[in-house]
Specification:
102 residues, mainly alpha, two-stranded antiparallel sheet
Length: 102
């Protein structure tokens, strides 16, 4: 008796949602939660509703543009590589041969 198995062709592929890859989904979600809290604070402080909405929609548009831009520019692991590269020293100075002699 022959068995039929479905092959998952998405194995080892990065997690994607609407064009966002990997950690950028979390960045966008966190940014939207921060905007929601900021809207609530502005509204409670008595700022006009239309001014609140204008500020939040403008900030949200900038947030979407930046996060999608980073996702497109750096990809799944590129941002981590860029941040890691900043921590590598350009040169290592050694004024003594004592390290190599011992």
């Amino acid at each position: 008796m022959a068995s039929v198995y479905q092959i998952n062709r998405g194995v080892n592929q990065p997690v994607m949602f609407k064009g966002l890859k990997a950690q950028y989904i979390w960045y966008l979600g966190g940014g939207l939660v921060i905007l929601l809290v900021f809207f609530a604070v502005l509204y409670i402080c008595g700022v006009n509703m239309f001014i609140c909405l204008g500020i939040i929609f403008t900030s949200g548009g900038i947030l979407f543009k930046k996060v999608y831009g980073m996702s497109r520019k750096y990809g799944e692991h590129g941002l981590m590589k860029k941040l890691g590269k900043r921590q590598v020293p350009e040169l290592i100075k050694n004024n003594s041969r004592e390290v190599f002699i011992k």
